[in-house]
Amino acid sequence: MFSGVSGLNAQSNALGMISDNITNVNTVAYKGTVARFSTLVTQAATRSSYSPGGVRSIPYAEIDQQGLLQASEATTDLAIAGRGFFVVNRDANPAAGDPFVFTRAGQ
Prior knowledge:
alpha+beta
């Protein structure tokens, strides 16, 4: 029974990832997520018993990869061709020691 439930749960998670991808199709710099499935192996308690194991889904996103480039009317919009990130600061007037964040959104 566990193997069937784990399969349903893994497939439900994969459908959730597809839903997130559809929802964010117009979000700037969004990277889609795909499900990678892996087998769960269990150890049998005795030689005469059978333990079927199960499956799980693991989300995977290549966040540093280039996405689709879109034309823009704003002269201040930027894009990265290839891999990498913009290093930005959240404060308009950063002070020494303020943390930097990484983004691929060039708006």
